[in-house]
Write a structure and sequence with these properties.
elongated, 18 helices, Arc Repressor Mutant, subunit A, hpI Integrase, Chain A
Length: 366
């Protein structure tokens, strides 16, 4: 793969660009791209409700980004310019108060950068420079976490940077350190949808489909129990506290699902949830856990399909599973063996029979 060429902006000229564009839309864009590392899409979508002045953070859907020194006062001053006509979004026209088009963000940034002689620097270079500064000041795990980059993207985009002495991402953590890292990630992200989902996946062994569909009436916080299709599971005291804190944040009019999208406050679908969890794991170097999550969820889905077909037809064979799932014989056999071990299917000759059908037959024989 050909390495993309990035142009590092001159720091003095960047500060000049910010000074020349004090309290206008160009200044806001440069602040968010260069000082906070936001993408063009994130700048376009940023709402004022996501700016946490008290804790000095930008609360994005997939991560928190600390506000750099001076960024918080700048954003306060920019918002104050609108007086009573408070806009929802940060990237808005000062004249109309309306959100500017996403493609216009690049054009505004281009004009501001050209104005100070940074003709080769693009909007993406500003974000790249933010990551580089985080790498120099902290480490790769921090840089990936606050930038939202995946480990794969970091490895591809920062090959040249690593050659210049910036930290490289380890190929994979050891099994022991991976386990410790996973718990740290879960604890640090316990208030996010991805973090709560990780706890449910780890503690109750729930598939993503069930996690996405989980509602509060399935959870008994007093007894520390969650009721799922696979049965009831006891939760640790720590996770009970996490769920209690999440429930306390809900309003009376909120949807009853446990996991809601940060902005629209609607139930989170399985696909979006899977993406959020995988990105969270990959950003923290947990490639193996991300692969394990994907494998486990695919295996669960395949077993559900097998069981539904077996119940509908009365039985199923290994060859029928191969055809239905489009898998090889060893995979079909593995799924069937797991269903037999779990007690959902009973092997009779070459047929796999649902346990609820096979049980009376076995009792008659006895």
């Amino acid at each position: 793969m050909r390495e993309e060429v990035f142009h590092q902006p001159d720091e003095a000229l960047m500060w000049k660009a910010l000074a020349d564009n004090a309290l206008n839309i160009a200044g806001v864009i440069l602040q968010l791209a260069w000082r906070e590392g936001l993408t063009r899409a994130e700048i376009h979508k940023l709402e004022w409700t996501q700016v946490d002045y008290e804790n000095r953070r930008l609360r994005l859907p997939d991560r928190d980004v600390p506000l750099e020194d001076g960024a918080a006062p700048y954003l306060r001053q920019w918002r104050a310019l609108f007086g009573a006509r408070q806009p929802v979004y940060a990237a808005v026209s000062l004249k109309t108060g309306k959100r500017i088009a996403e493609q216009y963000i690049s054009r505004v940034a281009r004009e501001a950068l050209d104005g100070v002689g940074l003709n080769d620097v693009r909007l993406v270079d500003l974000r790249h420079d933010f990551v580089r500064r985080m790498l120099e000041k902290y480490d790769w795990t921090y840089a990936i976490r606050v930038s939202g980059l995946s480990v794969t993207t970091y490895r591809n985009a920062f090959t040249g940077e690593r050659k210049r002495g910036l930290p490289a991402v380890p190929d994979r953590p050891s099994a022991e350190s991976a386990g410790e890292l996973l718990w740290r990630v879960m604890e640090e992200n316990q208030s996010s949808p991805a973090g709560v989902a990780l706890w449910l996946w780890q503690q109750a062994n729930m598939p993503l489909r069930e996690i996405a569909g989980l509602t509060w009436d399935q959870i008994d916080l007093e007894k520390g129990r969650v009721t799922t299709e696979g049965g009831d599971f006891l939760l640790t005291k720590e996770f009970i506290q996490i769920l209690a804190a999440e429930k306390a944040r809900r309003g009376a009019a909120d949807d009853p699902h446990v996991l809601l999208t940060p902005r629209s406050r609607k139930p989170m679908d399985k696909s979006r949830l899977s993406t959020l969890i995988r990105d969270l794991l990959l950003r923290n170097g947990l490639d193996g856990a991300a692969d394990g999550l994907r494998y486990a969820d695919r295996a669960r889905g395949e077993k559900e399909r097998i069981l539904r077909q077996a119940r509908a037809a009365g039985s199923i064979t290994r060859r029928e599973v191969e055809t239905m799932l489009g898998v090889k014989a060893n995979v079909a056999y593995s799924r069937l063996a797991e269903l037999v071990e779990s007690g959902d299917l009973v092997l009779s000759g070459r047929d796999y029979i649902p346990a609820e059908i096979a049980a009376p037959q076995e009792q008659d024989i006895v």
